[in-house]
Amino acid sequence: MSSFGVLKRSFSTSSVRQVIKNVTVIGGGLMGSGIAQVAAQGGNNVTLVEVNSELLKKAEASITNNLGRVAKKLYKDDPNGAKKFVDETQSRLKGSTNPSDAVKDSDLVVEAIVENMSVKHKLFKALDEAAPPKTLFASNTSSLSIGEIAAVVNRKDKFGGLHFFNPVPVMKLLEIVRIPEQSEETYQAFVAWGKAIRKTCVTCKDTPGFIVNRLLVPYIAEAIRMMERGDASPRDIDIAMKLGAGYPMGPIELADYVGHDTTASIIQGWHEKFPDNPLFNPCESTKRLVQEKKLGVKTGEGYYKYNK
């Protein structure tokens, strides 16, 4: 993977750089590549880890494309400045296919891989042995318990959740998730780093879905249940919430946008862990859509049909 770099205007403070300067991101999908990009823009030396060179190339292309968009906005009438911005940012980012080697000098490791507890456990066990004692660990999981993920490491005081939102370079929010064992020093380092990469940070305990998804997923599910009961049509539910509650998008539209495979996986996981909570009951119509591969906007059909 060609090297990638730093934003012309460094957003980091000297005190932050002393704590978090070298960042390793595990996973180069939409979330991981976005996290790597904003970290590099914020002044960090970033190593992006994927399982093979082909996936690294795909992540590289995604970051290069996104940096071009950012450069056009920052340097509308300055093509030389835009080129310098992209080149400098890219120079601070490199790729690796070896997680253990990639964390040898990391101040922070952010995991953004598949939402599977056993896979995450295997990764963090290896990272815990390979990373130096100073290294902070974080997971970008959107639905799994941070405490459960951290159960396999010895540095629980240096572990937490850093939940970004898609697309990472655009969305301003960063949820910082605390577990009881997390030290105050670790928490403050997470907050300072979040601010340094220009995110607005909010904090919560290790509750299912944290803040946003804990409220959003049950809201979507309840709207779908209302539709399933025949209380109102999908269109009327969406119109009602947009005009009556001021939401930019209705819950059924939002479900299609997020992807039914994603929401179904989240709520199924919560249902298995908390079977007595009716808010976490899976929706039958959503399960059918997933089985039929009608996942929403990304496949051209969900509860609504879309022209691809």
From TrEMBL:
Belongs to the 3-hydroxyacyl-CoA dehydrogenase family. This is 3-hydroxyacyl-CoA dehydrogenase. InterPro entries: 3-OHacyl-CoA_DH, 3-OHacyl-CoA_DH_CS, 3-OHacyl-CoA_DH_NAD-bd, 3HC_DH_C, 6-PGluconate_DH-like_C_sf, 6PGD_dom2, Mito_3-hydroxyacyl-CoA_DH, NAD(P)-bd_dom_sf. Residues 209-306 form the 3-hydroxyacyl-CoA dehydrogenase C-terminal domain. It is found in: Mitochondrion matrix. Pathway: Lipid metabolism; fatty acid beta-oxidation. Pfam families: 3HCDH, 3HCDH_N. SUPFAM superfamilies: 6-phosphogluconate dehydrogenase C-terminal domain-like (SSF48179), NAD(P)-binding Rossmann-fold domains (SSF51735). GO terms for biological process: fatty acid beta-oxidation. The keyword Lipid metabolism applies. Its main location: mitochondrion. It catalyses: a (3S)-3-hydroxyacyl-CoA + NAD(+) = a 3-oxoacyl-CoA + NADH + H(+). Residues 22-207 form the 3-hydroxyacyl-CoA dehydrogenase NAD binding domain.
